[in-house]
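Bench log, entry 3. Co-assembly request; chain sequences pasted below exactly as received.
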Amino acid sequence: LVFTEEDKYGLYSNLLFKYFLAEGVVCGHELFVASAKEHPDNILKELPAPLLDDTYKNELGEEATAIKSEDFQDSMKIAWRYQNLPKMEASPTTSTKFGHYYDISKTMSPELFPSIKWHSFYLPEELSLQPQMKTCNMNSAYARLLQSIQRIVSQEGFDGSDPQKKQKNILRIGIQSLGSLLWGDDICSNDTPEDVHSLTKFLYVLRGLLRKSLSACIITVPAHLIQNKAIMERVTNLSDMVVGLESFIGSERETNPLYKDYHGLVHVHQIPRLNSLICDVSDTKDLAFRLKRKLFTIE
Amino acid sequence: QGKFTLLRDTRTDGSFLVHHFLSFYLRAGCKVCFVALLQSFSHYNIVAQKLGVSLTAAKEQGQLVFLEGLKSCLDLVFGEEEEQPGQPRPLQFVSESSPSLKALFDFVRTSLTPASGDSWKSPVLLVDDLGVLLSLGAAPVAVLDFIHYCRVAVCSQLKGNIVVLVHSNEESEDEENELVVNSLCHHSDLILWVEGLATGFCKDVHGQIKIIRRVSLELTAEQDLVQTYQYKIQDRNVTFFARGLSAAVL
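Structure output for the full assembly:
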C-alpha cells in the first residue's frame, strides 16, 4: 500500500500516479482506477508513452551527460571529505533493468490498451448504487469503493479464488485524491472532522484486501489540507510505504540557490518492512525531484 | 510470571521485538494468543522461520492461537451473515456504533484458558499493535479497559504474561494514542522503549533501546532501573551493544 502525500497543486503526485498506471499497462497488469474528480477514462488517456529500448538510451543519455558535466565543475569546498564518496547513480545503469522508462511529452498510444483489462470507479457515477456490505460507520463513498475493489478482486480471481485461472496477473489499483471533500470526507476541510475514523477504517480494510490478493495500490492524498495531524500519523502506520512530495511552487525555496535545478523534494516517510526483521537500510535520504520536458527524475 | 511488558517505539519500528517475544515464548513451550492486527500471518511466519520457529506447526498443535486482524476484519465487512449465530467475532466492534472491545476480550480469554489435555506452560498474550484499535474506532478508554480486563484474566487469574506493542511519536498530535501509551507506561512491569537515533539514520546502529524495570511499582521506595543499549538488526538476529561501542566503531 503506497501512500503518497500530494504536493500543493497535485501536479507532481498526479505524474507519479500516471507512471504507476503506465507501468501497469506496459507490464500487462490489470488496472483499477478510482477518482472522485477526474473520470478514469480521461486519466488513462493521458498516460506517458513508454520508451522502447534504443530510444530510451538516447533520450536518457542526453539528460544524463548534462547532469554529469555540471557536477564536475563544482568541486566541494567545505564538504571536501565527501568528494571522494561514490555519487548516487545519476542515471540507471542498463545492466539493472527494473521497470520501464517513459517520455512524458508524449501520451501512450491507445494501441497498447485493448490488450489490457481495466476497471474504473468514478464516484459521481457510483452514487446511485447501494453498498451491499456492512458500512461499519464508514463514509459511504469509501464503502462503495471498497465494495467495488473487493468485487473485482474476487471476480477476476486475484485472491486465488478461481483455481482454473491459468495465468496469474497483478491488479494495480490507483486511487486519486482520497480524503478530499469530493469523497465526502471532511478531514481536509475541518479542524475537528465529524468522522475521524472513516479514512483509517477504509485503509485497514483495503490493506486486508491487498494482503490476500495479488495486487498493489497507490493512493494520493492532499495531505497538506489535512489539519488533524493525528490522522496522518495513523495513516502512516497503516500503510506500507509513505512518500510525500513537496513542490517549490510559491514557496521561499523556489528562489533558494541550493534548489535551483529542482522542482521539489521527495520525503520518504516510510518504506515497506515485509517478511523481514530488518528495517530501513537505504543509504540516501535527501531526495529531490525535477521535471524536464521528457523526464521526471528523482535524485 | 504475571507480568505486563510494554513495547514502545519512537521514530523507528519496534516490531523486531514482537518477533522476538513470539518465538521466545513459543520455544519456551507457552501457550500464546497473538492478536496480530497489522500484518498478515505469512509475514510473521516467514520471520519466525528465520528465528527457528514454525508458526504453522505451533498453530496445528494448538500452542498458538493466531488472530489475523486484517483477515478477520475482511470477513466481518464482506462476509455473509452470521455463519455461527451466537458466536461473536473478535473484531465486531468495527461495525458497531458504540464500540466495545468485549468480544475481543472474550476471544483472548477463551483462547488462553487451558483446555483439558493441554500441557503448555503459562499463557501469553501478545498484541501488535494496540494503536490499530484506535484507528478502527475504539475509544481510548475502551482500549484501556480491554487491557485491564486482559491483565486480570491473563496475569492474575491464569498467571500468564502480556506483551503489547504501541507506537509513540514525540510531539505527536494523536492525543488519544498518547493517552493510551502514557497510561500503559504507568502500569507496566517492564518497558522496552526503542528509539531511532536522534542524530538520524546510521547504517551500523539502527537505534537505541531503553530497558526500564518498574521497580518503583513494588513500593519499596526504589527507583526504576533503566539500562540503555544500542542495537543493529540483521537478517536473523539483533545485536545489542553499549552506546558508542558498535562493531563499526571498535
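Helices of chain A lie at 11-27, 40-45, 53-73, 123-126, 140-155, 198-211, 229-238. The interface with chain B takes residues 133-134, 136-137, 146-147, 150, 197, 200-201, 203-205, 207-209, 211-212, 228-230, 233-234, 237-238, 273-281, 283, 285 of chain A (CB under 8 Å).
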